[in-house]
Amino acid sequence: MNSPLLPTYARPDVVFEKGEGVWLVTRDGERYLDLGAGIAVNSVGYSHPHLVEALTDQAAKLWHTSNLFRIPEGERLAQRLVDASFADTVFFTNSGAEALECAIKMARKYHAVSGSPERFRIITVEGAFHGRTLATIAAGGQKKYLEGFGPKVEGFDQVPFGDFAALEAAIGPETAAILLEPIQGEGGIRPFPLGDLRRLRQICDEKGLLLIFDEVQSGVGRTGKLFAHEWAEISPDIMAVAKGIGGGFPMGACLATAEAGKGMTAGTHGSTFGGNPLAMAVGNAVLDVVLADGFLEHVRQMGILFKQRLASLRDRYPDVVEDIRGEGLMLGLKVKPPNNEIVEAARAHHLLVIGAGDNVVRLVPPLVISETEIAEAFDRLEAAIKAVSQKAQAGDTRRALP
Predict the structure, then answer these.
(1) How many whole angstroms separate alpha carbon 234 and alpha carbon 250?
(2) Which residues contact 137 (CB under 8 A, 6 or more apart)?
(3) Which of 13, 57, 204, 333 would give a disulfide with 361, using CB separation of 3.0 to 4.6 Å?
(4) What is the CA radius of gyration of the chain?
């Protein structure tokens, strides 16, 4: 079927009409158990009544005023994020890429107003994904995203994952900051060891660098802490968040200490739609749910349960499953066949999972998933993996025949 949409996505022919909790329902009434959550976006599930009420109540009052005027719900949400994190200040955006753009500009501006305008370069890590703008694809450094878009935006230096010798060698008189995801999402659910995160904090302190965390995918409860870096008991200077903070509504935020943000004065940055009343109403509703007593403990418990079950797949299907990765409900299966085979087989069993880099199958369900739903998801995932394994074995048998 021809479509007027720009063909930048290879979509399967599946159309969803509504969602309920961790389930998506097609126009034909078929139900799919969703372990993708709109790519780790629908943090509190589909059609959560508290979010629906917040959005509809605000929609009946006011959608947009622009940032030329105060937005009280935005001030409230910013204060709640400050109270729950390392930050002193917040800038609201519409997406993760915009939040990263703000973080990059903030780091450069910090050094400029501190008397070192030559310090503009940012060290990033190979395998990272920071967005699709020209600056953020340069920050990520992956060839497949850079190819064909002209000269790479200057100012980013990639180092191998976990290679501290290369990282320290990359630090020079023009270095402003280090930027990384505590757990790489698109890069294949690759967590940085907690000791490495603490060491990075120490290096930044010693060298006068800013530490920037991209928690677009790992933040807002995804790992069982509000933010993944909390597991290392350290703090960044700047942090980008998005995805789960809007629970499905497009929004992001750049959080920072007062010191890191000191250069971002009136007129230095802006957004027409960022922090609009609709987004702020939903963002506050998401925090109502995520910060409620017991919610993050639920995520931790469900994550442990799911990871334990997944480990058995590696034992029973070693020809398919190579490794289990992740924290909380940000999990991944490193697989041996092409990961799209698992994705397609799972969809055939009405289970939605997502591919990621390093041949990983990503499992990032809504954080409200129950123990019963994890059991159901596991059964469907095992059936998909079994089908892939049997297909491969049948192929091997045919190849072995004379």
Answers:
(1) 28
(2) 130, 131, 145, 146, 149, 153
(3) 333
(4) 22
pLDDT band at 391; cut points 50, 70, 90? confident
**DSSP-derived 3-state class of residue 174:** coil
Query: Which of 232, 304, 312, 247 lies closest to 280, judged by CA?
Result: 247
User: What's the burial of 200, exposed, middle or buried (CB within 10 Å: 0-12/13-18/19+)?
Assistant: buried
CA 202 from centroid of its chain's CA atoms: 25
pLDDT above 90 (res 402) = no
Residues 6+ apart with CB under 8 A from 60: none
In this predicted model, what pLDDT tens digit does every residue of 136-157 receive, in sequence order? 999 998 888 999 999 999 999 9
| pLDDT for the residue 2 | 81
Q: Cβ neighbours of residue 394 under 8 Å, at least 6 residues apart?
A: none
Phi, psi of 197 (to 5 degrees): -65, -40
206-238: pLDDT as tens digits: 999 999 999 999 999 999 999 999 999 999 999
What are the contacts of 263-269 at 24+ separation with CB within 8 A? 263/106, 263/109, 263/110, 263/112, 263/113, 263/114, 264/91, 264/105, 264/106, 264/109, 268/105, 268/109, 269/91, 269/102, 269/105, 269/106
Exposure string (b/e) for 319-333, b if CB count within 10 Å is 16 or more?
ebbeebbbbbbbbbb
DSSP letters along 270-296, please?
Answer: --SSTT-HHHHHHHHHHHHHHTSTTHH
Residue 401: predicted pLDDT: 43
The band of 398, judged by pLDDT with boundaries at 50, 70 and 90, is: low
Report yes or no: 362 and 381 within 8 Å, Cβ to Cβ.
Answer: no
Residue 297 has phi, psi (to 5 degrees) of -65, -40
Please tell me the distance from the alpha carbon of residue 26 to that of residue 290, in angstroms, as a whole number. Answer: 28
CA-nearest of 230, 179, 231, 174 to 200 is: 179
Cβ atoms < 10 Å from Cβ of 2: 5
Q: Which two tokens stand for residue 284?
A: 């506050």
